[in-house]
Amino acid sequence: MKPSPPHRALKFLRWFCREDYIEEIEGDLTEVFEKQYEQSQTKARRKFTWSVIRYFRPEFIKSFKTSSSANSVAMFRHNFLLAFRQFKRYKGTFLINLVGLSSGLACALLIYLWVNDELNVDKFHEKDDRLYQVMQNFDRPNGVVTGDYTPALLAKALLSEIPEVENATLTNTIYQSNWAKGILSNKDNSINTKGILADSDYLNVFSYNLIQGDKDKVLADKNSIVISERLAKKMFNTSENIIGKALDWESEDLKKVFQVSGIFKNTPLNSTVAFDFILNYDILLDNNPESNEWYSDHAYTYLVLREGTDIRQFNDKIARFLSSKHPLRAKCTLFVQQYSKRYLHGKYENGKQVGDRIVYVRLFSIIALFILLIACINFMNLSSAQASRKMKEIGVKKAIGANRKALIIQFLSESILMSILSMMIAVLCVMLLLPQFNVITGKSLHFTLGTGDMLIMLSIVLFTGLVAGSYPAFYLSGFNPTSVLKGKPNSSLREQWVRKGLVIFQFSLSTIFIVCFLVISKQIELTQTKNLGYDQDNIISFQRHGALDVDDFEVFLSEVKNTPGVVSASNMSGNIIKQINLNVGYSWEGSTREDAEITFPSPEVNYAFIETLGIALKEGRSFSPEYSNETSKLVINEVAAKMIGFKDPIGRYVKRGSQEMQIIGVVKNFHYTSFHEIIKPVFFRFDPIGKTVLVKIKAGTERATIEHLKEIYEKFHPKNPFEFTFLDDDYQSLYEAENRVAILSKYFTIIAIIISCLGLFGLAAFTAERRTKEIGIRKILGASVFGIVRILTSDFTKTIVIAIFISLPISYFLAKNWLDNFAYRIDLQWWLFIGTGLMTLLIAWLTVGIQTIKAARINPTECLKDE
Fold first, then answer.
1. Which residues pair with 726 in a beta bridge?
2. Distance CA 54, CA 35 (A)
3. How far apart are CA 251 and CA 191, in angstroms?
4. Where is it located (predicted)?
5. Average pLDDT for residues 156-177, to the nearest whole number?
6. CA separation for the pair 261, 225 (Å, rounded)
7. CA-CA-CA-CA torsion for 208, 211, 215, 219, nearest 10 degrees?
8. DSSP category for residue 4
9. What distance in Å separates the CA atoms of residue 792 and residue 779, rounded to the nearest whole number?
10. Helix (H, G, I), strand (E, B), or coil: what is residue 565?
11. Residue 435, φ and ψ in degrees, nearest 5
12. Bridge partners, residue 539, by sequence
């Protein structure tokens, strides 16, 4: 049974007309429709529409205008229904847009989680907007050096003498970590842990919330210790009723019994300072009186400034504060930096804040935006390319009175609906990928659908939907209905260039991503393959604890060296990679007073240190037990020898203060810091009781040898666990940020390329479909498959080539700026950029080629069939 013609007609018209008007014209509609139904059903439906327009146009327009405001909800429902029908009808285009947008949104969400976490580090303190750390600039002959170490006396002095300071506190520096790193024990447990030393106002300045205890009193007593909830449960198996209980403390510099005076909540994950207990800072001052002098930098100083304090004026006020306290401070300038900004803005060069982590926050924010734009461009391009499919729909609607605003809303509704569907898939992807993303970034990010996250997601959805649908909405809604209904759409050269411009933008970004990824990878490869001047392979490093003497170290090292699998062993103070001890005041014949003020890395090492690391000796000798009084000898590197200016430095003397020290050897230059810095002068001194032990192990025996070393270590340090690292892992940690950027950039580059290729694939498929008859005619006239493929791909090739030429100069500029952060870097060779351009072109050809070859091989009789 054929359906009632008026039923289909009325179902269409009810979206736009009043119900009473439909009842009035129902009879006339039936008559018009039955006249046309004699032809095929498809043509009848089409011609019925034109009949309605011709027969009822004046009344229809009046009805549409009258009912538009009353039926706004129905109109939105209608728009979304049309969008769903559009998705269902053109499944290929729908899938391309869905995959592209969901991939872009997933990347944007992951980067948002990372960026949001970075921006909120140390922001949890209640007085964050007024909490500052005191910094100081040192004027040196080789430039201004910025440091965060200050005199221990500074906090109280600023609080009492500067009215803008509301509160002040101090803690120990990282170089005093041995005071607050050791063994806490009671009758039941013994734990290796670390904490901080702070004055009594610390918990009034920082928001580490107390569970038990009074924050004004918990640090008032030198015999008190405030512990974390985590440590309380480890030591007492509970955090209840432990105030006043005793804990034995044993570290390198201190052995003492403390009473628990308070318990604080565990330090948050977004805190740059992680500790499990707090001791009174006066303990350090009592045991090291020199640290309580104005010429000595032994503390970090933090201030809470009063409301409304002008930071510039405050910095000017305290700039010369130290110079009035001690003559040695004449070249020191104080200033403050907001504490929560130290994490992202903590790098200084020549006294000015530069770069640091904020660079990567901005970089990945831009990457997220660009990847999202690439995905949006796919939607724009495919929607505008398929405009002809919607022309008749637009023409009919405009002819019956639909205004441009209603059409814009319709197309934006379609793009927003696509964005919503894509966001749903993106959320699922983020939940699946987040654990691996945390591994890559070294964070513990969590994705929760809270109010804040929902608002951010809604904002991203609206932004994506509006951007993706903007061009199609304004472009399609601008069609002239007269031209459309006559079958002469207003296609223009401008439209084609807009579409090509969007493709150029997509592939320009993709090419830039590829170049930057290759440059980062090559630079990281350089850091891993370049000869560092010393050996990292199979060398482990670990720390000894407690008060040690020379005899103890000789016995310990003797047992270590006699362990099967140990090639050699030695020890040093500090760390050859992360922390080399510094000394000030070396002078030599011909040096100036300014030379004596330069700070030189000057690690203290034991016998066989140079041999264990495999540092090449250029001339002279290294430290040896065959010689006496090695403490007055020095081994320097080539840079130091060149700086001193001695043609033959062996046997010459330099002064460290009033002590004369003889140069006995010169080693070849080696990279003891990252490639960000040039190789600086090094003065090796002799000291047999450095706490850092380095052991070179025979390849293939690592596991068994380490087990033996663990037994020896536990014999000498029964309370301390054997914790070691491999030297090559320590070296890689210097490039932690770069390694993570390299890994993330690889994934983001791949995603950007995939999204761009999806869009190009869709355009190629659509182009081939629209030129089907042309292909059939060309094949009948003798065109080869290769010739047709060349014709179909020529426009795409030109577009991609333009994108490559635009992107390569930009890529060079960005790569050069990033490499400028390294003192030792790769050369930007021309082949890297040309190779990237060819790679991009090849990817585009492969993407387009799949569709063009398929279209070129179709049977011409199939091409010329009338639909």
1. 540
2. 15
3. 12
4. Cell membrane
5. 88
6. 6
7. -90
8. P
9. 13
10. coil
11. -60, -45
12. 696
Contact 147, 138 (CB under 8 A): yes
Q: How many CA atoms lie within 13 A of 412 on its CB side?
A: 15
Q: Are 498 and 369 in contact (CB under 8 A)?
A: no
- Over residues 270-320, the pLDDT tens digits come to 888 889 999 999 888 888 777 788 888 888 999 999 999 999 999 999 998
Q: Decide: 761 and 852 in contact? Cβ < 8 Å.
A: no
DSSP string, 25-42: HHHHHHHHHHHHTTS-HH
Pairing mode, if any, of strands 633-637 and 683-686? antiparallel
For residue 519, give the nearest of 836, 764, 805 by alpha carbon.
836
| Cα separation values, 801 from 367, 498, 504, 601, Å | 23, 16, 9, 52
DSSP-assigned letter for residue 579: B
Sequence-separated (6 or more) residues with CB below 8 Å from residue 563: 705, 708, 709, 712
**63 burial via Cβ count (<10 Å: 0-12, 13-18, 19+):** buried
Joined together, the tokens standing for residue 361 give 């926050």
Q: Which two tokens stand for residue 402?
A: 């639909």
β-strand pairing of 348-349 with 352-353: antiparallel
Q: Phi-psi category of 700—alpha, beta or left, where left has phi over 0 and alpha has psi -120 to 50?
A: left
SS3 content of the chain, % helix, strand, coil (to 5): 55, 15, 30
The residue with tokens 């894509």 is 422
> Tokens representing 52?
């309605």
Q: Among all chains, which residue has been given the structure tokens 């170089």?
A: 175
Whether residue 70 has pLDDT greater than 60: no
Taking the CB of residue 710, how many other CB atoms lie within 10 A of it? 14
Q: Are 472 and 389 in contact (CB under 8 A)?
A: no
Phi, psi of 222 (to 5 degrees): -65, -20
Amino acid in position 670: F
Q: Mind listing the pLDDT tens digit for each residue in 11-43? A: 544 444 444 444 444 554 455 445 544 444 455
Say whether pLDDT at 88 is over 80.
no
Task: List the alpha helices (DSSP H) in 717-859.
Answer: 727-732, 736-770, 772-780, 785-819, 830-856
Give dist(CA 63, CA 197) in Å, integer.
Answer: 81
Backbone phi, psi, residue 687, to 5° = -160, 120
Q: DSSP string spanning 712-736?
A: HHHHH-TTS---EEEHHHHHHGGGH
Q: Is the pLDDT of residue 389 over 70?
A: no
How many helices and strands in the chain, by DSSP H and E?
27, 28
Report residue 116 as tokens. Answer: 């949001």
Q: What is the pLDDT of residues 793-843, one digit of tens each?
A: 787 888 889 888 998 999 999 889 888 888 888 888 888 899 888 888 888
3-state secondary structure of 281: coil
Side-chain-side CA neighbours of 508 within 13 Å: the count stands at: 19
Rounded CA separation 716/555 (Å): 10
